[in-house]
Amino acid sequence: MSSHDQGETSSNPSYLVGKRDDIIQAKRVTKFVNGRDVLVLYHQGEFHALDMRCYHSGGPLVKGDIEEFNGQMCIVCPWHKYKITLAEGEGLYQAVDPNMKPPKPVWCSKGIKQRIHTVSVSNGDVFVTLNDSPGAIDSDYYQTQKYRDKLAKGEIKEEK
Question: What domains can you pick out in the chain, each with its CATH number?
Answer without folding.
Answer: 3-152 (2.102.10.10)
